[in-house]
Structures
1.
Amino acid sequence: MKPTISFSPKAFSKMFRVLAEHAFLFTMFLVVFAGLLSGIVLFLALSQAKEVDSSDSLAVTFRQDAFEEIIKEWAKRDVLLRGTGLPLSRDIFSSQ
């Protein structure tokens, strides 16, 4: 005789009762299952990650012209800030 799977409300109530009676074991099963699943995902993510070669990485160079433009912009903003007449907030990062 083949066992049949029924989706009646009575079957669901029986399933919930069994889970409630063995709540600790069910919780441990879920923890182990989550650990295995996350381990598999991590393994797949790391195995598919491409190694970056140092020659492929972008070279960082200092651009003097961009640095000077930034300093000029900061100076303009400082003049505008000081020209408002509002008191400047104290610097919380200095030791004064």
2.
Amino acid sequence: MNSNSSKTRGRTGTFLPQAGIVGQLDFLPGEKLTAYTVIMKIYGTHPDVVTTYIGDGRLAEIKLSDTLTVSSINQPEYQVSGVVLGLGTRIKELPERLRRIPELKAWGREVQLQIPLDNTFLQGEKVKVTMMRKHGFSVF
């Protein structure tokens, strides 16, 4: 063993093509892993996709490429435009955190919106999504 290899032992690393934060570790120290096992999830500093839900009665109101407004619940004056990039193919139960009354189950179609990467939202931040209609705003 040469002196160079002993200095680098235990200090291996991987460099990522972009900045991010470790969101989840899926292993324990000393655990033996098989090749190609996902060991961590790395998220961007700010989200670039927002997931929202639209209720049964309003499914026809939204389509791919529509532009919606995404605003912060904590800072309502902060808004960005989001473009619909995905529509779920089935009706799903809304996460408890997004229900108006957490004890009541609610259902809707999942909608993914692409938002600019230079936004100031936090990962997992709860936001309000609105769309302009002929007769005012519609809130999801």
3.
Amino acid sequence: MAIENDYEEWKEIRSRADSIATAVFLLTGGALSLSINVMVGNKSKLKLSAPLLENITLA
């Protein structure tokens, strides 16, 4: 009986950890997409030298 209860508790903990991990990945993926769009979209508006823009693009 104790093993079954322990199994259910670990199953619930695993489910919660998976939910948190999924939320973190969604948030970080969205933040990364947003930052890439901002950098790509505003590159022409930034007043930076050509070599610096080239280094930013390669990084």
4.
Amino acid sequence: MDLSKNTKEQIEFVRQQLISCEIPRDSLPYHEKFDLLYEQYSQSNLPDLSKNDYWRLLLTVGKKGNIKQQNKIKLHPIVVTKREKYEILRLLHHSAGTRDRLPYTPEFDHIYELFNIRTKKKPY
């Protein structure tokens, strides 16, 4: 995402959100903390963003804003079987280098649905 498309106010608002967030940025997608941050952003007087655009703004500000991820609470990873790991790799093979842009997109929703069908896993 090109930050020039966002106002200085948007960038600073999101930067402050990331600094005060207690979990790492990469743990935010589909976490209740993301929903809380998105709600805070949505209730501000800043331009409306879709969840995907907001996520991409978080990513860009976090990476370009040099926001440290140390001292954040590490979340326990979700335990997956070898079969599930294989299926994730199979479904995401074409997305190398762009996976961080997938959350909150129809493409990700489709991948999630396929994963659940193929692994017979119940959605969370």
